[in-house]
Amino acid sequence: MNNLHFMHPAWFWLLLVIPAVWGMRWLRRSHQGQWERIVDKHLMPFVLSGKAGKLGLLPLVILSSALVVAVVAMAGPAWEKREVPVFRNQQALVVAMDFSASMSAEDEKPDRLTLARFKLLDVLKARKDGQTGLVVFAGDAFMVSPLTDDIDTIQEQAKNLSPDIMPAQGSRATPAIQRSAELLKQAGMAKGHILLITDGASDPDAAKSAAKEARQQGYQVSVLVVGTAAGAPIPRGQGGFLLDSAGKTVVAKVNLDELEDIANVGGGVFAHAALGDADLSALSAQWQAENDGKLTEGQGRQVDTWVNEGYWLVLLLLPLAALTFRRGWLGAALVCVLLPQPEQANAFGWTDLWKTPDQQAQQVMDSGKPADAAKLFHDPEWKGAAAYKSQDYATAAKQYANSTSTIGQYNYANALAKQGKLGEAIEAYERVLKADPKNEDAKYNLDVLKKAQEQQKQNQPQEQQNKSDQNQQQQQKQQDQQQNQAAQQQQQDKQDLAGKEGEQKEKEAEKQAEQQKQQQADKGKQESDKEKEAQAQQEDPQQREQEQATEQWLRRIPDDPAGLWRRKFQYQYQQRGTQARGDEW
Questions:
Q1: Rounded distance, CA 43 to CA 33, Å?
Q2: Tell me: the pLDDT tens digits for 320-341?
Q3: Which CATH code of 3.30.420.40, 3.30.565.10, 3.40.50.410, 3.90.76.10 fits the domain covering 88-302?
Q4: Distance (Å, rounded) from C-alpha 333 to C-alpha 22?
């Protein structure tokens, strides 16, 4: 038992309920003890029962014991491990991200590529299970990562990618869809999802055919668009903007209809990237809906896991639970604690354990709480009487409506009259008089209502005029409310825009913090190199010269991940031969 621990210790906070319950009980008894200071000692045996603490203690002890056992069980006691197979969700996703020159356009702040990269990171963070792959494309498509569970590696690789590494420009979505489908097929996935993060497709017709073919293979194609239909110029690294063959500034516009058609043909979701999580929520909902829910066992992988032994404690709760079937025991424990009654001289006794709900409700009714009594009564007429006394005439009428007795119908008529339903009340009184012609109270109330109904008919023209005036006032009030709501909506839109801009600033601050961290790491590396050189000066001269020569050769190796990707993509592009290309952006 040295390994005994609790898997869910937060449940122990629930034990704080026990001292609170006992404190409430003590407070109740302290109020009841005031009678001992008022009544003479020789009269106490005849006036006070003196059994409040003893009779109310047993149910409370049982309730506290049951709570302790239940809390310990829910906390999950564990003391041994067992080997269990590892299961994983086989939901697969390949993200194909556009790295064409047009992704540098600044109609999205700070630019399309930055927004797309943030959305990619958000997608990866949301992937709690399943496998994910990454493909990049421009004039052609290239694999960056096959399907893998290692999301961190994909995140690091995505930071080193930019449009400069692509061997050919353009926004050809066709090879991107085809390469993504190949990755899913090579991994043996019968079903999967492809997500295009792009600002356009220079080959919309071919892309639709590729999306249709992918869907036939079991892979759905969704599109996450970055950019606007109005577009923006494409900045160049050396300054200025990109020009076409005629010398005019290129404005990279986004054809939303074409991209939406690709998503529809591919059976996926079309979403427009924006600040917030609405777009990713729509995509995630589609991926979850298409997931078959099956978990596949890892090949030969097992893991040791702690075994929750708390279910054995449930056996201890069975005897305590059996006591709750005894009529009144559970209610007695709760009433003893939660319903202090300092005004009563006699405390809770054994006879109270056997009171019916209607008897308990009548006791509440007698204490001057008809609204509470109406909730406790089971008998419809008693419930109606309590509701009527608490001026809840609608509930009273509902309870009396099905009554077959003359008194019940009389009370039903009274409840209708109190609500101003004169016609229905008159009919109810007439039914009462038909069953009991000698009911003087019904006769009197019927005459009063008939006179009130005649007076109401005489005043009807004036009431109609007043109603017309009220309608005009209400219409004017509604127009004023609509104007106020429109102004509030505009103010809310401004606040939302400010919140989105704040979120973007936070992301930019995180990016700057990462850059500062990298600079500090480089500085630490330089200091480490200096220390090595100082140590080398103290060693043998011949060995020092050999180490310096080796270090010089190592420094010639470029520490440029983006350059490695550039050379790799260039080699693959040359191996494939000349490709059909669209616009150079």
A1: 15
A2: 666 655 545 455 444 444 444 4
A3: 3.40.50.410
A4: 11
